[in-house]
Inverse folding.
C-alpha cells in the first residue's frame, strides 16, 4: 500500500475522508505524543504505525493527513504517550491501542456475544441522501412519546417482523406505532457498547451475563452494531 503522510487539519475531529485522502485529528490535553495505528479490517496486527510529527500538533489536537488508503478496508486506533499516575488521573500506556472518541463506526464485535477482535475505529462513508426530509415540528404539548429499547421491542417472535432486534425491525413497526397514536419515539441507548462488559454470573446456569441495555457506551458517535443481533438471517441466541 503506497501511503504518504503530511500535516493534517485540526478540524473536524475524528477521521474525515477528503478528496486527497483521510484526515485524522485527535485531541488530548496531557498526552506527550501520539501514533496512528492502521489495520486491515479484521487483521490481528497493524500494517502500519505513523507517529504524529510534533510540528503538526495544533494546541491539544494531533493532526495527520494520509493518502493512499481505502477508507472502507481499514480500521485504526491511537497509541498515546504520557504520564502514568493514578493520583493525577493520567493512565497513559503506549502499549494500548485506543479507540477514536469521535469514530462514527466501530468494528470488532459484529456478532452478539461473540467478540471477533478488539474494538477498533472504522471510517464511515457518510453519503446518505436525506432528500426532502423535514422535521414534523410537532408542538411539545402534542407529543405522544413511546420510549423503547430497540432490541427488546423487536427481538421477540411476537413482534412479527422480519428483522428482529434491529433498526430495520423497528422500522417495520412504524404502522403499528402510528395506529396507537404515537407521534414520537424515544430510544434507549443506541451508541456502541460492549455487551461483554459484565462480570456477573447467572446463578442457575453459571454462564456470564451480558450487558443488555447498553448503558456503558464506548463510542458516543457510533451507532450500536445492532446487526450483531443477527447473522445469516437468523436470530442470535
Amino acid at each position: 500500500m503506497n501511503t504518504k503522510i503530511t500535516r493534517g487539519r485540526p478540524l473536524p475531529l475524528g477521521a474525515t475522508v477528503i478528496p486527497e485522502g483521510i484526515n485524522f485529528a485527535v485531541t488530548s490535553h496531557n498526552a506527550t505524543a501520539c501514533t496512528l495505528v492502521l489495520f486491515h479490517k479484521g487483521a490481528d496486527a497493524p500494517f502500519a504505525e505513523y507517529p504524529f510529527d510534533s510540528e503538526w500538533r495544533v494546541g491539544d489536537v494531533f493532526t495527520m493527513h494520509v493518502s493512499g488508503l481505502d477508507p472502507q478496508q481499514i480500521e485504526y486506533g491511537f497509541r498515546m504517550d504520557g504520564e502514568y499516575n493514578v493520583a493525577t488521573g493520567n493512565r497513559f500506556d503506549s502499549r494500548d491501542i485506543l479507540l477514536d472518541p469521535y469514530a462514527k463506526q466501530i468494528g470488532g464485535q459484529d456478532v452478539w456475544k461473540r467478540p471477533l477482535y478488539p474494538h477498533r475505529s472504522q471510517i464511515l462513508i457518510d453519503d446518505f441522501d436525506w432528500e426532502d426530509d423535514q422535521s414534523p415540528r410537532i408542538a411539545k404539548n402534542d407529543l405522544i412519546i413511546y420510549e423503547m429499547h430497540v432490541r427488546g421491542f423487536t427481538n421477540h417472535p411476537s413482534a412479527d417482523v422480519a428483522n428482529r432486534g434491529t433498526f430495520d425491525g423497528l422500522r417495520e413497526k412504524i404502522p403499528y406505532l402510528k395506529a396507537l397514536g404515537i407521534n414520537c419515539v424515544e430510544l434507549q441507548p443506541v451508541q456502541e457498547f460492549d455487551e461483554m462488559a459484565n462480570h456477573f454470573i447467572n446463578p442457575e446456569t453459571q454462564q456470564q451475563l451480558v450487558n443488555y441495555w447498553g448503558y456503558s457506551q464506548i463510542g458516543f458517535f457510533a451507532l450500536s452494531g445492532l446487526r450483531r443481533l443477527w447473522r445469516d438471517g437468523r436470530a442470535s441466541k
Q: What stands out?
A: Residues 140-235 form one domain. Residues 229-237 have pLDDT under 50 and may be disordered.
